[in-house]
Design brief:
Layout: H1 2-8, E1 12-13, H2 18-21, E2 22-27, E3 31-36, E4 45-49, E5 53-56, E6 79-80, E7 87-88, H3 97-111, H4 119-123, H5 125-140, H6 142-149, H7 162-178, H8 185-198, E8 200-202, E9 208-211, E10 219-220, E11 226-230, E12 236-240, E13 251-252, H9 261-271, H10 279-282, E14 294-295, E15 303-304, H11 321-341, H12 344-357, H13 363-379, H14 385-403, H15 408-430, H16 448-466, H17 474-481
Parallel strand pairs: 10-13
Antiparallel strand pairs: 1-4, 2-3, 4-12, 5-9, 6-7, 8-9, 11-12, 14-15
Helix pairs in contact: 5-6, 5-7, 7-8, 11-12, 12-13, 13-14, 14-15, 15-16, 16-17
């Protein structure tokens, strides 16, 4: 594995020799993993890695985009590369680093088949371009092609996967027209499997997907030791979320922390083909948050922990898993009905019903609070700012307990929080009540000094967590400049 790390060192930016800092080990439980050979302090940049392969995402929710800078394009009017006809946003893109690579490596191969490329293939670039770029590595960069083939593809587990079969068919259809590289159906299937198992999707509407050699080797934990973000140059930045000791395995999360244990495990089993046994997954209370627990109908104060025989942790009440499932089905139907109405009053009503049956931090409660918050933000009424702040803070408090305060998702929640203080301060300014004693001191929500202090705290935290992120809000970028 030392040679493997040496092979990828040209794509990873480190302060010293990569072999001195990291090693790849294999264990029977989690397969290959990345181990640090040095101590890492909280927020330390562990490494910065360039993508192995980069292309448009095949996510059905992603937008049609430029194949060089990934700016969203319209599907009716867009510019094209004069040589190969691929969609681009402007000629300026061709002068950027990705454009130079395109003109030197990719474009000459694609240009040979320009006359035979159909409009259907051009409009479906997100379905085939990234795998085709991977296949082109066989011709232009054999070391990178070798690195790609070392990534997991899980073809045995995906043998009957309809989605993978469809992706393979789309790439094969494009290859037949492009004729850029000799390949086989099985090789295309392997490459598509590698993308499905290892690709990261990011951007405004997840319009970019990329493979990274080293980041792709890092294993999952539901409360990981590191976080990975993607910057405006599409590089993966791996930073320590806490102090990491020499000899410890680096971990990232593959799923949202705001999924409960059953949802996380199902998603990981479906997409990554393993069952997570991390500390959080093995704790039925999920660090004491009761993220999957029901409220005890007998004593009210206790919780029915989600296990084979749900029982109250405060009294002697017991029930069956079947009864719990019936209750959850009924609550889900109520939620669907309320969401169809899509007004905040209906969501508040269903939230009240939830809180009578579910724990305060149940995943359904948190999910509904976020939907309610989104609705209130869309309505943008000044009189609801305090309620919005409250909902935001409740999600922050929950996330801090299950995932810590040093995550990308926390960054966006803190950014949202500071926006609420901006709204309130702007309103107070308009009312000319910003003088020191212009409002009642008894209510901290009306004290200018408290509002400004909380705003600055959230702004600082959001900036620290998102300053390199490709989706960093413009306000935070301006704050960094100051």
């Amino acid at each position: 594995m030392e040679n493997f790390l040496g092979d990828i060192s040209r794509s990873v930016q480190l302060s010293d020799d990569i072999n001195r800092l990291l090693e790849v080990r294999t264990n029977p439980h989690s397969g290959r993993g990345v181990i640090t050979k040095i101590d890492c302090s909280e927020n330390q940049l562990v490494f910065l890695e360039e993508p192995l392969v980069l292309g448009p995402s095949n996510d059905p929710t992603s937008e049609f985009c430029c194949v060089l800078c990934y700016k969203i394009l319209g599907t009716t009017t867009y510019n094209q590369c004069e040589s190969c006809s691929l969609p681009i946003c402007s000629e300026k893109c061709l002068n950027q680093s990705s454009g130079i690579w395109h003109l030197r490596m990719e474009c000459p191969l694609l240009a040979k088949s320009r006359s035979s490329i159909s409009a259907q293939v051009l409009l479906s670039t997100r379905s085939w371009l990234a795998p085709v770029r991977a296949l082109i590595l066989k011709l232009i960069d054999k070391p990178k092609w070798g690195q790609l083939l070392q990534l997991e593809h899980h073809l045995n587990e995906r043998r009957n996967c309809a989605i993978l079969q469809r992706q393979q068919a789309l790439v094969w259809f494009a290859i037949q027209q492009l004729a850029v590289v000799e390949t086989t159906q099985e090789e295309i299937r392997q490459v598509c499997g590698i993308f499905d198992s290892n690709a990261f999707r990011f951007g405004v509407s997840r319009e970019i997907r990329a493979l990274y050699t080293l980041v792709s080797l890092i294993n999952h934990d539901c409360r990981p030791s590191t976080r990975v973000i993607f910057d405006t140059q599409f590089k993966a930045r791996l930073s320590a979320r806490r102090t990491i000791r020499s000899g410890e395995e680096l971990t990232i999360t593959y799923v949202s922390p705001l999924l409960n244990t059953r949802e996380r495990r199902e998603k990981l089993q479906r997409s990554k083909h393993f069952t997570c046994t991390c500390t959080r997954c093995e704790d039925p209370t999920e660090f004491g948050t009761h993220f999957s627990s029901l409220r005890c109908p007998k004593c009210i104060k206790g919780h029915l922990v989600d296990n084979d025989l749900p029982s109250c942790d405060n009294c002697s009440f017991k029930t069956t898993k079947e009864k719990v499932q019936c209750l959850m089905t009924a609550l889900s139907l109520k939620q669907e009905k309320a969401l169809r109405k899509s007004d905040s009053t209906s969501l508040e009503n269903i939230l009240g019903i939830y809180l009578k049956a579910l724990s305060d931090n149940h995943s359904l409660v948190i999910d509904l609070k976020q939907k309610l918050l989104s609705n209130l933000n869309r309505e943008n009424k000044l009189q609801t700012w305090k309620r919005r702040l409250q909902l935001n803070q409740e999600v922050i408090n929950l996330l801090d307990r299950i995932d810590g305060s040093n995550s990308r998702q926390m960054g966006f929640l803190q950014y949202q929080r500071q926006c609420f203080f901006v709204i309130r301060l702007a309103h107070m300014q308009r009312l000319k009540t910003t003088c020191q004693n212009g409002v009642q001191e008894s209510d901290e929500y009306e004290r200018t000094d408290w509002l400004i202090g909380e705003l600055e705290k959230s702004l600082s935290l959001a900036t620290k967590l998102l300053k390199h992120d490709i989706n960093c809000p413009e306000e935070l970028k301006r704050h960094q400049v100051k």
